[in-house]
Amino acid sequence: MPRKKQEQPTAPPLPVITGLSQAEIAERVAGGLVNGDQNIKTKTVWQILASNLFTFFNLLFLILAVILFLFSEKTFEGMANFGFLGVVISTFVISILQELKAKRTIDKLSLLSAPRVASLRDGEEVEIAVKDIVMDEIVILRTGNQICADAVVVHGSLEVNESLITGESDPIMKKEGDELLSGSFIISGSAHSKVIRIGKDNYATKISAGAKYIKAQNSVILRSVRRFIKMMAMVILPLGATLFSVKYFGHQGELNETVRSVIGNLIGMIPAGLMFLTTGVFSLSAIRLSRYKALPQDLFCTEALARVDVLCLDKTGTITEGSMEVTSVIPYDILEDETLFILKNLSEALNEMNPTALAVKEYVKDIPPSEVAESVIHFSSARKWSSAKFKSGTYVMGAAEFILKKMSKKTEKMLALHSEKGNRVLVLAKCGDIKDYNIPSNIALVGYIVIADKIRAEAPDTIKFFAAQGVAVKVISGDNPITVRAVAKRAGIKGANDFIDATTLKTEEELEAAAVKYTVFGRVTPDQKLQLIKALKKAGHTVAMTGDGVNDVLALREADCSVAMAAGSDAAKNVSQLVLLDSNFASMPKIVAEGRRSINNLERSSSLFLVKTLYNFLFALIFMILNEPFPFEPRHFTLLGLVTIGLPGALLALEPNSNRVTGSFFSKVVRNAIPAALTVVSAVVATVLLPRLLENPLDQHDISSMCLMVTACVCFAYLIMVTYPYNALRITMLFGMVGLFALAHFANFGQIDITAFFGLSTVYTDDMLMVIMPIIVLSIPILLCFIALIKQLAHSEKFEKLFARLYD
């Protein structure tokens, strides 16, 4: 088989370039003119430990635990009063483990994909680390390399893809004297380049540096829980002091017993288990996301994604694969099969690796070649065409305006039609021998090759899913707006014809108005992407942003939920809350479903925790008035919390639930909790007061036991209502919790007496049953009445505003 020869002029001789000497390198390092490590760092292990350990939440419980320790019995039964610390420790451990796991994964990603570069030093080519690049370093760049420091070409020429930097997907030709931006990739060619900027002055690093600010946690649930805990903490300190003073000084209570009962009441006011449940649910959610090859870098990212109403997409790498595809080959005065054979022969002969050549190669991959080329002329960005000479003639492929001396009306119409659609059209033509890179005038058109950005296979279905959920989808790209619009239309984005060139937006007011009005944005700079996200948030939207380039970093950082593709720049991955490890956009609906599952189940489970908080708060107020001992100790709330709140809440929070997220999380939770809390308070107050009517007075231990039983029965009744509609799991859970509570009254195992540990009574006298039985029976209709009343009030706008004002 004859070998094809390359027709090209003699390359200019390489000038004498030796690079820096070791002395010059040492001088620059000493002067600080070295690149250094500019990676955006994750938290250190100590920072992770400190941020989870030194919290207001932990400080408050530590103070209460110390006070309780000083006034509690140092016995096995006395230790039951410290059950709340198990929740605190569990929350701390889960948070630490999740953050450490995320840190280990992220630390494996570096800011730039090319950790080492080829450099010329003392006249020899050596490999050095990116951090060791110095000013004026001569870096050798070849096809496939990433540019790791801003430089200027001193010899050779390159085709560069700057899409991760600017969003522009078309390759750019770089010749001697042209500047190269860090973060871009070499598509073809080779060159020697001289570094002109290092470290924080590099283009990519400057953009990334804009994302190095501390972003407030935007989890609605976490913010609501923390705010409520702080609000209760502000209330319980003066309330606790007042309650202690009234009980100890006013009612002449015994010191140790008064301290224990007051501390138990205060601990019950703080929904500690709610923090544990929230952290635990989202930690398990993060683990489940690994099934979809998604890495959550923020524990609450699924919640944020489930709440978004605007999704902003970058074009390249998100909607498209970052590559091209041939959509059609249109023959001109010859058969289509003949056109495809010519295209296959040309593709085989050139064997090029640029995006256009790869698209053509993919399109004709199943067609066998029919001829072997005698010589070829490879593609050049300056010429805009390539060719191959065969026995049957010479064929040329490229841009029409560089190949055809004069275009026919048909060709002009074809080019205009596809240009409006955002496609590129190449022409395939046959001509005489090409000499000195000049195409002869005797040229005959063979066909048109229509090329477009390759849409990700999963993108249309994913976009359709978000549209069906009422989420507005917008495309923000640095590419040509016509091209971006065409991609948006092919991907099925509604309103794709509402597009704008961002270079026409001169003022902040114009940009804010455009953010709401338009769907597709082209020629957007990194700063404008940031401003668009801010404008959408200012308009009251919850915004998610997906991207993969350095030019997306600022917008990703600002968005309520940021999603990066693993195939993109590591700068983008480093600042995003969620990284799609397989760069598969199809994972997004599953992630949204996971977020909905967490939010909806937490709303139901959280009301169980708030019941205890509300009735303890009311107990504090009421027992300051009643001249009666507070009937509960901390260990009683430990048992109640376990069987009526903790275990049921955790099980309910893990069930599938893909209902859409609606309304305010906190207001819904509190409204659901109020009826049960009022019912518990009514029942306990009645249980404390009714024994006064008995002939034989009951002792305080009996009253405490009755109050515990009454409270448990009301909480179980509320739990039965919360778990509706029933299934096998929920019914099993209900029987299991009731059985566990009953078992605790008889669990005496010699050395380990669970009954005494929780301070439970094993015998209920006739007088005790005479008091609690009617109270338990009447509590059910009372609970139903309170539920109906709160539902009625919830429809009142005044009630909603009052509730919001109280919480704010």
Notable characteristics:
808 residues; alpha/beta; 8-stranded mixed sheet; 7-stranded mixed sheet; 29 helices; 24 strands; disordered N terminus
Morphology:
elongated
Structural class: alpha/beta
Indicate the percent of residues in helices: 40-55%
Radius of gyration: 36 Å
| Spatial order of strands in the largest sheet | 9-22-21-20-10-17-19-18
Please count the beta strands (DSSP E, at least 2 residues each).
Answer: 24
| Share of β-strand residues | 15-25%
- Span of the ends, CA to CA: 83 Å
Question: Mean pLDDT, nearest integer?
Answer: 83
Describe, in short, the structure shown.
The chain has 808 residues and is α/β, with parallel strands linked by helices.
Set out the fold topology.
Elements (H helix, E strand, L loop, with lengths): L4 E2 L15 H9 L14 H9 L2 H16 L12 H23 L9 E6 L2 E6 L8 E5 L8 E11 L1 H4 L5 E3 L4 E2 L4 E11 L7 H7 L10 H31 L4 H15 L2 H18 L4 E3 L4 H7 L2 E4 L1 H5 E12 L4 H15 L4 H9 L11 E3 L7 E6 L2 E7 H4 L5 H12 L3 E8 L11 E13 L3 H10 L3 E5 L4 H10 L8 E3 L6 H10 L2 E3 L3 H13 L4 E5 L5 H6 L2 E5 L4 H6 L2 E3 L7 H38 L8 H20 L11 H25 L10 H23 L5 H17 L3 E2 L2 E2 H4 L8 H29 L2 H11 L1
Parallel strand pairs: 1-12, 10-17, 10-20, 17-19, 18-19, 20-21, 21-22
Antiparallel strand pairs: 2-3, 2-4, 4-8, 5-6, 5-7, 5-8, 9-22, 11-16, 12-13, 13-14, 14-15, 15-16, 23-24
